[in-house]
Please model this.
Amino acid sequence: MTFTEHLNELRVRLVRCIIGAFVGFLACYGFAEQLFALLMKPLMDLLQPTGGSLIYTGLPEAFFTHLKVAAIAGLFVASPYIFYQLWMFIAPGLYEGERKYMIPIAFFSALCFVSGAMFGYFVVFPFGFQFFLGYASDFIKPMPSVKEYFSFSTSMLFAFGFIFELPLFMFFLSVMGIVTHKTLRKYRKFAILGNFVVAAILTPPDVVSQCLMAGPLCILYEIGIWVAYIFGKKPKEPEAEAATS
Model:
C-alpha cells in the first residue's frame, strides 16, 4: 500500500469507529437515566448516610451530563467493533502468520478494556471516595458537582481500561519479535518503577489510589511476561554441527 492508500484506509477505519460509537450512543441514550444513577452510585452510597448529595451549578449541566454518560456507555458497548477496526488498520503491515491473531486480539482488547473499567468502578472508586470524604468535618461539608464527578470518574475508568491492555500490548510485541520474555524479565525493575510513575500521573495525589493502580500494573506486567514466553517468537536454533567422523 502506498502512503496515500494508508491515509485513505485510516480515514475509512476512523469513520467506521465514529459510526460504531454513534450507534452505541443511540442504543444507550434510552437508558441514560439508569446509567447516570449507576455511575453516581459509588459516591452516593457514601454521601447518602450523611445527608449529602451531588449538585449542579449550571442549568443545562445535568442534561449534558446525561448525554455524556450515554456517549461514554456507547463507547464501551461499541468497543469490540472499534478495537477491531483499529487492529484491522494495522493488519496490512503484518505477515500472514501474524494476521491470524487480529480477531482474537480485537476481542481481548475490548475484554481487557471493559475489565479494567470494572476494576476501577468496583474496587478503586469505593476506596478512593472514602479516602477523600474522610477529610469532611463539621466545618467542611462535601458538595461535589455533577460535572466534576463525571469528569473525574470517566477519566479514571478510561485510565484503568487502558492500563489493562498492557498484557495484550506485550503479546503483540512478542508475536512480532520486537521483545522477548527474557528482555521483559531483564527490565522488570524499571517497569515496576515506571508503573508507579504512571499511577502517580493518572490517579489523584493519594497513596491509596496510586497503589490500587500500580499494583495491578505490576501484576499485568508479570502476566505479559508469561504471555510473551508462551506466544512470543522463539529464537532460531543454531544448526547442528556436522558429526566428526
Observations:
- The mean pLDDT is 85.
